[in-house]
């Protein structure tokens, strides 16, 4: 059975059992894993048995998904903006609530309703009594704290003043980092909900996912230059939170050191297009020794996350890995074309 056929069957089966029969998504996933193991180990009888189960579902599935528009979509996200008690946080509540900030993050908007999840992810802004952002498995919530937004804006203002940046830089710094942080926590949510296998440090994996999503699903009016600036601002935040002096607790922490996260992101950015981002190396933001392996590292990470998530794409959006990559490239070309089109205000 080819990878393409397997992905199609898995997507259709997951959509059908989740939407029509109410069977457990996790149980179906485990059956899919059993099929993969049986194929890898050459156990023909086991593979045949599981394939027969999927084949038995086909008449029901295709009666429900006869055309693209009738195919079931994925689980929709939820959004909430909690009013803070502290007056100094009120402007950030207003910013988030009135602008529907979380729903309009391009990357979140792009994947909203695309995946078959056992339960929705709810995106929340709230007062937390600390600078923080987190995913709560118990509540299924990705939470962005107003205190973090306040600190990010202040950091952006400091940088604008010291570097002579133009008007609006501080707001762009805030927006870019909110996007990265929310996507980072979304990665934790997906790993938890879908039981995605991660063999390394989870914090590194979700940094990689956030970077990949910002490169793949940026707004259609955002040029590659804008995407690059957003990611460079996000990497700056890693350094802003680093002291350069560490104790054993810092080395033992589940997060990599800020400097390491900074260079990891520079590597993914450079590796995605070495010719375009050569200045990252020549300006000294990424050592040449690390840069040599970055193109392969960037390809491997992007490919790995794509393969991990494809089996959970809803039937309405089902696609092969090859088609997904073609769509990403077309989306990139469209963004570049749209960014240069003038218009009248």
Describe the protein:
- The chain is mainly alpha-helical and about 350 residues long.
- About 60% of the residues lie in helices and about 5% in strands.
- The chain is built from 15 helices and four strands.
- A four-stranded mixed beta sheet has the order 1-2-4-3.
Name the strands of the widest sheet in spatial order: 1-2-4-3
- Mean pLDDT comes to 79
Largest sheet: 4 strands, mixed
Work out the number of β strands. Answer: 4
Assign the structural class, choosing from mainly alpha, mainly beta, alpha/beta, alpha+beta, or little secondary structure. mainly alpha
Classify the helix fraction into a percent range: 55-70%
| Radius of gyration from the alpha-carbon trace, in angstroms | 22 Å
Helix segment count?
Answer: 15
**Count of discrete domains:** 2
> What gross morphology would you assign?
globular
Ranges with pLDDT <50 over ≥5 residues?
1-27, 56-67, 341-345
Q: Terminal Cα separation, in Å?
A: 54 Å
What proportion of the residues form beta strands (DSSP E)? 5-15%
| Helix and strand pattern | HHHEHHEEEHHHHHHHHHH
Task: Spell out the key features of this protein.
4-stranded mixed beta sheet, 345 residues, Metallopeptidase, 4 strands, 15 helices, DUF4344, mainly alpha, single chain, 2 domains
């Amino acid at each position: 059975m080819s990878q393409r056929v397997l992905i199609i069957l898995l997507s259709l089966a997951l959509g059908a059992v989740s939407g029509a029969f109410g069977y457990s998504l996790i149980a179906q996933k485990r059956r899919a894993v059993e099929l993969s193991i049986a194929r890898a180990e050459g156990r023909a009888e086991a593979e045949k048995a599981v394939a027969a189960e999927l084949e038995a579902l086909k008449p029901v599935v295709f009666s429900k998904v006869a055309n693209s528009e009738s195919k079931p979509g994925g689980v929709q996200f939820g959004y909430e903006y909690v009013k803070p008690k502290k007056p100094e946080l009120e402007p950030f509540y207003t910013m988030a609530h009135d602008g529907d900030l979380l729903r309009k993050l391009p990357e979140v908007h792009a994947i909203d309703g695309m995946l078959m999840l056992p339960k929705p992810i709810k995106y929340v802004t709230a007062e937390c009594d600390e600078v923080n952002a987190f995913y709560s498995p118990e509540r299924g919530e990705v939470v962005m704290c107003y205190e973090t937004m306040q600190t990010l804006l202040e950091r952006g203002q400091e940088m604008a003043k010291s570097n002579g940046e133009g008007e609006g830089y501080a707001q762009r710094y805030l927006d870019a980092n909110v996007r990265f942080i929310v996507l980072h926590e979304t990665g934790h949510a997906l790993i938890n909900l879908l039981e995605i296998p991660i063999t390394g440090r989870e914090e590194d994996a979700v940094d990689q996912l956030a970077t990949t999503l910002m490169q793949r699903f940026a707004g259609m009016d955002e040029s590659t230059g804008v995407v690059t600036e957003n990611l460079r601002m996000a990497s700056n935040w890693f350094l802003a939170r680093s002291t350069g002096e560490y104790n054993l607790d810092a080395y033992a922490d589940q997060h990599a050191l800020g400097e390491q996260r900074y260079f990891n992101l520079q590597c993914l950015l450079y590796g995605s297009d070495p010719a375009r981002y050569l200045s990252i190396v020549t300006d000294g933001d990424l050592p040449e020794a690390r840069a040599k392996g970055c193109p392969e590292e960037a390809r491997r990470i992007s490919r790995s996350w794509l393969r991990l998530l494809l089996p959970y794409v809803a039937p309405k959006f089902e696609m092969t890995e090859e088609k997904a990559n073609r769509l990403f490239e077309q989306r990139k070309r469209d963004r570049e074309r749209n960014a240069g089109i003038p218009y009248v205000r």
